[in-house]
Predict the 3D structure of the following.
Amino acid sequence: MSLRIPVASLRGFGRRHRVLLTVVGTLGMGVALGLALAGQRDEFTFALSRVAGWTLAVAVLLQIVALLARSEAWHLSIEAAGGTVARRVLFRASSMQVLGSVLNAQLGVAARIAALRRASPSVSPQVPTLIAAEFPILAVEATLAALASFTLIGPLGLPWWLPLIAVAVFATASAGLRRLALRTGRELWIGLAVLRNRAGGTRVVGLVLVAVFAQIFRNWLLLHAVGVDASFLDAIALLIAVAVLGQLPIGPTTGAAAAVLILGSNGVAATAATGVLLTVTGTVGGLCFAGWAGADQLWSKAARRRTQREQAGASDDVAVAPRG
């Protein structure tokens, strides 16, 4: 009982001061990375300068592919839960996660759900259902991470049996979600409806795989671009580290911190440069997605106003037309 009160207090403090914690965490991690790079400024600058423009463009494109694939997986999950939100509206809401995730992963999810409820309150499911609709996607991502967690054994010195435990835990959790999906009556369980049939679940898994492999290829591409002789498995380990550290309030420094943690033995300057490029290309790709969403919303509003004017004009013509 005595431990529950401090834990609850810490969680409450974290929710109330999420932005402040992210700012402090980002500054703290930035200072730590600066100390790690002390005396290696030239190497860091050289690693960044050797990256070709086409490499950055491909990295941005891969980020956009990952965002689109994950958004479509979310669309399938919500559609199975009974939501009738148009795909374009849902994708516009999904783009809000990009802006929120710059600060914190949880903030990004909250921003996406809030944007969807605000845009289509009458046809989108309730908030508990929307939250649960994330679980199938997260379960697939977590299971893939567990299956690939053996790539962390070397970089982090983990015991060989730890990945086996991770696989067992997430496989059990996925089976539990499948059982919960078969229940009815609660808004939360409705969000898991996509798991009730094999076809829907398979499509979600396929889309998540597209998103994950796009991120892995982006990691591998940027690692080689800065001169790090990294394998495909190293790129997978880096993706897992980015996902795990992304849950901490360290903001835009997540990429650099993950790269140094996993591949720092190959040179802190080059790996830190990779992390910076991951953050930059990821942010640019996200901004492209958000830019499309903003432009599409403006175009939709303009088209709606034009239609309203045409209907009003047609009504006026009917009103002034001479009677036979």
User: Anything to note?
Assistant: The chain has a mean pLDDT of 82. Residues 13-304 form one domain. DSSP finds 15 helices and no strands in the chain. The CA atoms of residues 129 and 191 lie 4 Å apart.
